[in-house]
Every structure is written in C-alpha cells, then in structure tokens.
Amino acid sequence: MLEELHIIVCEAEQDRSLERPEQLRERIRAMDRLEDVMMHEPLELTRTGKAAWDALQRRAQARHAALAEVQRHLCDAVRHAIVHGAGVHALSGWLHRDDLRDPWGYDHLDALIGDVLSLDEPTTPIASLEHEMVFYQPTPVRHVLDLIHRTRLCGDDVVVDLGSGMGHVPLLVSICTEAHACGIERESAYVESARRAAQALRVDRATFIAQDAREADVSRGTVFYLYTPFTGGMLRHMLDRLHEEARQRSFRIATLGPCTPAVAVEPWLRAASEPDTDRITVFRSVA
Description:
The protein has ten helices and seven strands. With 287 residues, the protein is α/β, with parallel strands linked by helices. The protein folds into two domains: 2-83, no CATH class; 124-285, Rossmann fold (3-Layer(aba) Sandwich), CATH 3.40.50.150. Strand 4 (223-226), helix 9 (232-246) and strand 5 (252-255) form a beta-alpha-beta unit. The longest helix is centred in the N-terminal third of the chain and has 37 residues, at 47-83.
C-alpha cells in the first residue's frame, strides 16, 4: 500500500503539465489522489517506516498546495471575467457536456464552478425537511450545461428553479446565457448564500426568493426547472399550479431525476425527447 501511495505522489510531482491552467480535469484528479494520500492512515510502522511516511506526507501536502495555487489563480481570473460581463467567454474552454454517460456524482467541472461561485456554507441551522421534501443536492454542472443546451435560452427567457438550494442553476444560467433566472428556495440560509454570490460576481440577472415553491409567483417563468425537489402530494400540488398557468400561456418544464416519470404522464405536457430520469428532459405545455 505504501508503495502505491508513493507512486501517486511521484506521478503528481513529475507531471509538470498539471500546472497549466487548461489541464483542469487532470489537475483535479491529481489533487483528489493526493488528498487520499494525505488522509490515509497507515498501519503501525517502524521508526524508519514512520519517518518515510512523514516525508511522503509532506511531499503530498506540498504538491497539493502548489496545484491548489494554480487552481486559485484560474478561479480568480474566471471570477474577474464574470464581474466584467465576460464570464461565458472565460468559462467556454471548460464547460462541455462531454460526460453524461455517468449521470450522477460530481467531477472537475463541479470543482471549478464551486471555487468560482464561492458559495458560503450556511452558519445557521437548516430547517428540517417536511414530509415529501427531498434532501438538497446541487445539480451536477454537466446537467446544468445540458439544460442550457436543450432549452436554447435567449434574453426573453426567465428560468425559475423550483427548490434552488444554494443557487447553482440560476447563477450559471445567468452567467452563460442572456436569460434571467430566479431561484425559489424555502431555506433562507441557502437563499442568503446565493444572493451574496450573485452580488459578489455582479450577476444581476439572477434573483433568489426565500419562499415555499408551492406559493411562488409562476406568472413570469418561461422555463421551470425541477431537480426532484419534492415528491407525492407536494409535487402534485406544484404540477396543478403550473397546469393552471398553462391554460393562459405556453411554457416549458425541464426535469432531472425521479420526478421525470411523474411529469411525463401529465396530459398537458409534451416531451421533446424520450423521458429519462438520468438526463435533462424538456417538456412543453400544450393547450
């Protein structure tokens, strides 16, 4: 085992390409492997073995710190571009929808966007979930990009994220498109974090409202996003509200996750592609 860990550290030290900003995927992978070394707890060692292990730990920490500094400079440059209205250009080299075969989990894009958005973890207690509410997890970035790709958003669109958590989707939509975006989230600590991020990055087209999604104003939305924020009767109530709105005008609903089959059987909606719980599915309302 120690030999395997030693190889990990040596490879990270010798691969100077990891210091190039464009090597994002490889750098994040190397940093993750170095973290595994740093967190590893070896079995009881001899004095000589302990000294060798301590030296390996110091090397792993030093290389991880050097790569983290590269990452920090990259993220600072992207944040600077977003503040000056050029975020989509600064991000365009990394934001691909290239790995949707593995639908879940997080990858190098999530690491990049997490650092760029710098969302503060709430310092106050989070309210307990009501029955039929789903534990919060942010949408993986590759799915947000797929959402943007599939909906072909323009300046007239207003994306409403029902159950927006800390605001990843509205923030990315507003950075990467001309659309406006609104996050509706009952947990006020998440909303405050999202608002601080939007203010720091001067993302004016993203707004956030602390409110129960079932009571939210849906009159402005042209695209409603559901990453299965709730189930059962709560989802039924939300779909009924949207159905009433659809009697007045047409709009789209984009889903991801277990809510997709429930949305797919709504007779007032038509799917643009075969509904798939592991991919973004876009539905359009019909009269």
